[in-house]
Amino acid sequence: MREAIQDSLTAGPLTISYGRRRILDGVTVGPLPPGSITALLGANGSGKSTLLRALAGLKAADGAISLGDIPLGALAPPERARYCAYMPQTLPPPIRMQTLETVLVAMRTDNRSRKSNHIAQALKILSDLGIASLAHHYLDELSGGQRQLAGLAQALARSPRVLLLDEPLSALDLRHQLEVMDLLRDETASRGMITIIVLHDLGVALRRSDQAILLAEGHVVSAGPVNQVVTPEHLRRAFGVEARIEISSDGRPMLLVDGVA
Ligand SMILES: Nc1ncnc2c1ncn2[C@@H]1O[C@H](COP(=O)(O)OP(=O)(O)OP(=O)(O)O)[C@@H](O)[C@H]1O
């Protein structure tokens, strides 16, 4: 446990602006321990993507960002990319490159094993995501959801310690959403990753993440274990909706939204 805390991700207080406009003000993150999934929640424009990009080193932030005793915020982008993999909200561009090739390119950043091992590992990731049959298809021939899965494969292929995903389920059908969340749970636990996912589906967040950070207007409304963050009072403040948490017949929490507050 001591090791887990030492290797945790912590950030803040962070202040992040676009030009003169302050987007996030005094936001703190963590400590988020290895092996945990954190849902980053909030209404449109609340600052989720901005915070995720800052953690990835793609947006300047005032304030410290550390992984254990590694000062991530002070690392140059190529070095930081060894620790953090980031998948943006936009789908991977439909380039004329085979899916397997794009995963191999993603792997090369820090993988020292032999090329045949690379290929086996890349195929395993594609297979885990249910898209092994697309290995030799070109990205510009894939559907939107298939491209999103390919993007996820590229992020996992980097073997990051911190996995930052911006709405990774947005183009996926119901079954793929569940499969991807289950896979992320397994991979996060087995690799000891720190996974942060921007999610709009609060029900998925409630059932599949360990912790949550709820943002509103550039501030943290609540952060901690997901069942203490996703509460009627917090949802009223952050989203302006009336909601209830009920326990479903399988004994797990279920979110019901009754309407606008
Ligand atoms: N490149 C930019 N330049 C200026 N302002 C920006 C830029 N990107 C985002 N913003 C502003 O920052 C605020 C937060 O945006 P952000 O994309 O972080 O929100 P979000 O919570 O991810 O929203 P959504 O759920 O709609 O994706 C918004 O008011 C947005 O207009």
TrEMBL record:
Keywords: ATP-binding, Nucleotide-binding. It comes from the Bacteria. CDD domains: ABC_Iron-Siderophores_B12_Hemin (cd03214). It holds the Pfam family ABC_tran. GO terms for molecular function: ATP binding; ATP hydrolysis activity. InterPro entries: AAA+_ATPase, ABC_transporter-like_ATP-bd, ABC_transporter-like_CS, P-loop_NTPase. The keyword Cytoplasm does not apply. Residues 9-242 form the ABC transporter domain. This is ABC transporter ATP-binding protein.
